[in-house]
Automatic annotation (TrEMBL):
Residues in tRNA/rRNA methyltransferase SpoU type domain copies: 33-167
Residues annotated as transmembrane: 21-43
Protein name according to UniProt: tRNA/rRNA methyltransferase SpoU type domain-containing protein
Domain of life of the native organism: Bacteria
Organism listed in the record: uncultured Solirubrobacteraceae bacterium
Length: 173
């Protein structure tokens, strides 16, 4: 084994011992994200930054998460299964005092480098891979975050976008 590989393994052993339960602080809500690989990637980021994940309690989401989660992180990461519809759940979170952050390309959005770490309980909404985030949720959010892009692509992969925003909100980037 190369020296670099063995050092990475040693670092992991020392630094990555903490599992987290619900810290009631940061929830990523990929309520419109459809693809299993994206849900699996987001779950891995949740584990890394200590965030929870909220998902619709449907066969599709349970199946997609099980397939996308190749590391069985769903047994160790805090999952909030919605006990109501998406729109109602977001309204309930807001009424309960959570700040709602929409991740979307939108007029008036805050650019990612200006996004401070979350100081209050925050729910992060992500949009569908092709349809994006429903406009009413972008409009109703307390804050919309856009990740600047200077290339030719129209948008980022949703799991990449969600992970970048989670790292900022968790204060780790
Ligand atoms: C692939 S994009 C959806 C693109 C879709 N065709 C559209 O026009 O809305 C999927 C989701 O990733 C997030 N996303 C992707 N790139 C982003 C960016 N540069 N800034 C903010 N959010 C982004 C948003 O949540 C978006 O709804």
């Amino acid at each position: 084994m190369s020296a670099t590989k063995s050092r990475a393994r040693d670092i992991r052993r020392v630094r990555r011992q903490r599992r987290h339960r619900c810290w009631d602080h940061l929830i990523i809500a990929p309520l419109w994200v459809a693809y299993q690989a994206n849900l699996g990637t987001l779950l891995r980021t949740c584990d890394a930054v200590g965030a929870c994940m909220a998902l619709p309690d449907t066969d599709h989401y349970r199946q997609a998460l099980a397939t996308g989660d190749s590391r069985r992180l769903r047994e160790r990461t805090c999952l909030h299964w919605l006990d109501t519809g998406k729109d109602r759940w977001v309204r309930q979170q807001r009424a309960a005092g959570w700040r709602i952050v929409a991740v979307e390309l939108a007029e008036g959005a805050v650019a990612l480098p200006r996004l401070p770490a979350a100081e209050e309980r925050t729910v992060v909404l992500l949009g569908h891979e092709t349809g994006g985030l429903p406009e009413e949720h972008v409009d109703a959010a307390d804050l919309c975050v856009e990740i600047p892009m200077i290339g030719t692509g129209a948008s980022l992969n949703v799991a990449v976008a969600g992970s970048l925003v989670l790292y900022r909100l968790a204060g780790l980037a």
